């Protein structure tokens, strides 16, 4: 976009927040600068692409409006000419009739002529007045349209509707920022992905829109109509439930598709705008894998290629990814040749891996990366979306699907919700998460969904995520977590004793929660977990709209790995700088997988109305 002032105006009218992550694991000092540049590059390109797209749509609408105005003026002129011709014809007919009448009766003819002339004059005046009035009204309407287009139509939300029709929203932003990350050969997604055991690229990805889609035909997410739902209930005090669902789509173990995130985004749009069912009651797919996913992508105009072409090869395989594959394949062969290799060198490897005093050269050679990339976005409408994309772990089995393609594990998003129920207004904040790490561990814990659920239940996002990592993720309390709840309920005292909690005790608990939020923010949490460690990380946000209509966002990142790449940008006028921020979050503990780092930052998203 060449016009800097125009760019700034669009940035103020259509503010967005983007948070992204690149992997979790160990990033060497040499790679950290490259990862920061990769993050900033993706954020900058996304912002430029977004506002260029918005500007193009608005300018195109102006041109179309101008053409319509010209057509309207032409139609008005044609109508005026037709009216004049009709008036002239009527006058001629009247004159002819008058002449005929003059031959029969002069006195009567004179009177009739006067009456006819008067009537003709009156009719002509009325027609002219009507034509002038219509012309003035049309001109006024055209002028109003021009004014709205010059101001981008913000007051009447005309342009918001235009952008929505073009699918320019938080989901589109997630799709494109992850596309830029996929195209960067540094990341383990799209181009540069890890190779499976057979030396092939198989990618996973998913995306989720936080929009509430009602499937019960009661419009239950509309706060104005919510009180009318379930009107047949005899008990008026009964809580009126809402059906639930955002829209999610995913692809797994897909080869031959340049950008897996674009495939998932197209799947999601089909669900959003064409519904869940197809002809003859068939279900529209929300997840595709393997060759079926590639075929669907090709049929819907997405860029595909023959990944098994012996002449051209797979364009997603880079020189570095091939070198890594050869290195780890050789290590695996050595392990098979020396069965006692792991036992002999296990203690030595652990010392080398976690020794804080190891030299820089040893650090530079070690790269333990689980570089799933992901993003969460809040747009100018307050809508939330999240997404994730990954090439999976190196030397994975053919057809293996990781957390990036699993519902509730790779990403999660839910818009802010306000409903009226039994004359009470209930408000839930918007939440989102995108996760990275060892796929099987993240899948078992459904990390993104469960973490968002914790955030909804807690006052502070820091406290919620801390509790999730301690009580769920690192303690392996996932698959059968409900068993613990059942046992606790069986062993807990009767409800009569529970109700004896004093008001002071509850206040003390709230104070402890607030203190905990301050204490654990930007610090390393060290716990005494036993068993196998769990390597994972996520970015999350909590979004609420205050009384002034400002969107308040709490952005958080947490990881049990040694490092994790983080980036964010806030294009709102509330931000001192709309430049992207990037850094490598470091967990300074010497026991990754058994402790975690957690930090957060607050933002405001303010839309400027002109």
From TrEMBL:
This is Asparaginase 2. Gene3D superfamilies: (Glycosyl)asparaginase. It comes from Dictyostelium firmibasis. The record marks 371-372 as: Cleavage. GO terms for molecular function: threonine-type endopeptidase activity. GO terms for cellular component: cytoplasm. Residues 355-366, 507-520 have a biased composition (Acidic residues). The lineage of its organism: Eukaryota, Amoebozoa, Evosea, Eumycetozoa, Dictyostelia. Residues 68-151, 343-366, 495-523 are annotated as: Disordered.
